Amino acid sequence: MTSAEWRRPVEDDLASIAMSLARRLHRGARLWCVSPNEAAQARAFAERFARPSEGGAPGPSAVALPADGLVAALRSCAGPGDAVVMIADASEPQIRELARRAPAWDLTTVWIGAGDRPTPGSADLLFWLDDAERTSDADLDELARRLSELTHVALADPGVGDVEVVEGAVCVTCADEGQLAEVVEPSADGLTATVRVVGELRDVDTSLIDPPAANDLLLIHAGSVLQNLDAGVEGTPVAQAPTGTVTSDGSAS
Amino acid sequence: MRYVDEYRDPAAARALVHAIHEVADPDRHVKVMEVCGGHTHTIYRHGIEELLPEQVELVHGPGCPVCVIPMGRVDDALHLAREPNVIFTAFGDMMRVPGSTGSLLDAKADGADIRMVYSPMDALAIAEREPDREVVFFAVGFETTSPSTAVTLLRARDSGITNFSVFCNHVTIGPPLRAILASPDLDLDGFIGPGHVSTVIGNEPYRFVAEEFGKPLVTTGFEPLDILQAIHMLLTQFAEGRCEVENQYTRVVRDEGNPKALGLLAEVFALRDTFEWRGLGFIPESALRVADGFAAFDAELRFEMPGVRVADPPACECGEVLKGAIKPWECKVFGTACTPEMPIGTCMVSAEGACAAYYNFGRFDERIAGTDDVTALPVV
Questions:
Q1: Taking CB atoms and an 8 Å limit, are B2 and A120 in contact across chains?
Q2: pLDDT reading at A60 higher than 60
Q3: Which residue among B118, B121, B251 places its CB closest to the CB of A236?
Q4: Averaged confidence pLDDT in chain B
Q5: Can you give the pLDDT at residue A3?
Q6: A207/B41 Cβ within 8 A
Q7: Which of helix, strand or coil describes residue B157?
Q8: In the predicted model, is pLDDT for residue B12 greater than 60?
Q9: Which of A122, A142, B114, B347 is deepest in the core (most CB within 10 A)?
C-alpha cells in the first residue's frame, strides 16, 4: 500500500471527526477525554483542545477524567450533547461499557486506538490505526495537535452552526423505533422507572418486563419499555463485518 | 436504535459492501423489500442503495405506520377532534396527515382542542387532570406501539378513569406481508424484516414467509451497518440456495419476542375481521380493535363515527409506492404538488415514508441521483 492510499482515509477521518466535534462544541458542548491505561494521554489531549486558537479565540471546554470509575464519573459529570474522546484498545472494558451507554446519555463518542478494531458501531466516530502503525505518545500528541487544530479551524468558520443535517420534525413514536434508555431509579413496585433517554429524565412504564435494576439499559417506545437489554439478550453491539482484510480503497484480500 | 449524525466505521462498511458485491449473482436481478419505514429512512439517509450492485434492488414496504392509515380513518379522527368537549390527542407525525377536509393541524388552527403527545400515557394524564373533558387518543402503529396503548388502557381501567377512550388503528405486520407475497404484481425475492416490531412479536410469526412462500427474511437493526449486513445475509442465502428466517438484530430481538407484551395485547385487543390499508386495500385480520372487556374505552363505540371510506386523491400514487410497485419519483405529483411541507399523500408526511425519504435526501430521480447536475433537479 502506498502512503497516498492510507493517508487519504486517515485525513478524511480526522477532518470528519473535527467537523463533528466543532458542531457540538459550537453548541456549548464540553469535551471529555479518557484513556484508562494511560491517564497522561487523556490529559495531553484535553490540554491540546483547551488551548486558545492561533487567532486568540478561547479554546473549548475540555476535561480529562481519571482512569478509575470512568463510567460513573461521566454519568454524573457529562451533560446531553457533550462529546467524549476515548483513547484505548478495543478490548478495554470501561470504554466498551461507556460506549454502550453513551446513546442514553446523548454523548457523542470518538474512539481512538490501534490494533484490533472495536465491534462496528461501538462508537459514533472511530479513528483507528492498524497494528503496524501503533502509535507512541509522541504520535498520539501529533494526532491530538492535528485534530485540535482542525477542530479550531472548523469552529472559527461562521457557518459551523449551519452545517448540521436538518431533517425536520421527526416523531420517534410514529417512526416505530425504540430508543435506548438507562434506568436511573426503578419504582419500588417494579412497574415504572425514571430513566435517562437522549440525556433527559423521563418516567416510563416497566410492566412489560421483569423489574429492572438501576443502570440497566432498556429499549423504550411510546412511554413503555419493550426490552431490558441487560437481561439475557446476546450482546453483539452492532453488525459484525464479514471476515477478511479490506484495504483503504475498498478492495479485499 | 439511535439517531446519530455520523455512524462511522468506514472499514467495516467497505468490507460489507465488498462482500455484498462478491456474493451477489451477476446474472440474477433480486428485489428485496425493507418492510419497516425506519429501514427506508436509514437506507436513503445514508445512500445505501447506491452502494449496492445494480442487480440488487431495494423495494420499500408498508411498514410506516403513518403511511398506511387510509384517508377515511383520518376523516374519522377529524370528526372526533371536532366533537364538543373533546380533547383529541395524537403522535407528532399524525398531526399532518391529510384527510379529505384537511389535517389535524388544520383542525387545530380552526379551534379544535388537539394536543400532541409522546405516549398514550400522556393522554391518560390529561384525562386525569381534566375530568370534565372527554380525552380521545388516536392510536396508530404496529406491535412496537400497541403494547403502550394496552398498558394505558389497563391503567385507565384500574384507576377508574371514565373520560378516556382510544380511537384504535393499530395494525399487525404479518397479514400485510402475506398480502404482498400473494400479490401477482410483485415478484420479491426476500425481506429485510422489522427490528423493533420483532422485539415484541419475535421471529416465529415470519416463518410462513420462508415456509409457505419460499422467501428468506432477515430481522434487522436500524444502523446502516445493520442494513448492509442484512443484505449480505440475504444474498448469502440466495447463493447457498437456503430460504430461512434469520436474525441479524440479536442484540435486541429474541426469537420468542416479549411474552408479557404479547399476553397483554391478547387481553386488551381483539383482531378486526378486516381493515383497510392504504394502497393494499382491505386485509383480513390485519388490525386490532379494543376488546369487549375494555369496550368502555373504545372511541368508536362511545362516539358517533362517520366511518366513510374515502378514496385517495386521484393524483396520489401512495398505494403503488407502498406496495413497492413504483418508486416515489415515478409518482406524477412527487416533489411538485406533493412535498413534505404540503403533502398530498401519507408517504410524504412521515420522515419514514418512502416519498419523504427520497425527497429529503435528494433521491429525486434515479436518472440524476448521484450526479452533481443540480440544474437537472425539478423545480419545487
A1: no
A2: yes
A3: B251
A4: 87
A5: 36
A6: no
A7: helix
A8: yes
A9: B347
Nearest to A16 among B8, B120, B228 (CB): B8
pLDDT at A98: 94
Minimal C-alpha gap between A201 and chain B (Å): 14
CA-to-CA distance for B150 and B147, rounded, in angstroms?
5
Return the axis-axis angle of helices A137-156 and A39-50, rounded to nearest 10°: 30
Q: What ipTM was estimated for this complex?
A: 0.81
Q: How far does A118 lie from chain B, in Å, by closest CA?
A: 10
Q: Which regions of B83-188 does DSSP assign to beta strands (E)?
A: 86-90, 114-116, 134-141, 164-170
End-to-end CA distance of chain B: 33
Residue A13 zone, left/alpha/beta (φ > 0; ψ -120 to 50; rest) = alpha
> Grid coordinates 416497566 are at which residue?
A206
Whether the pLDDT of residue A25 is over 60: the answer is yes
Confidence of residue A67 (pLDDT cuts 50, 70, 90): confident
B68: which DSSP letter? T
d(CA B27, CA B56) in angstroms, rounded, equals 11
Query: Is the pLDDT confidence value at A202 over 80?
Result: yes
Question: What is the number of CB-based contacts under 8 A between chain A and chain B?
Answer: 215
Sign (positive/negative) of CA torsion B266, B269, B275, B277? negative
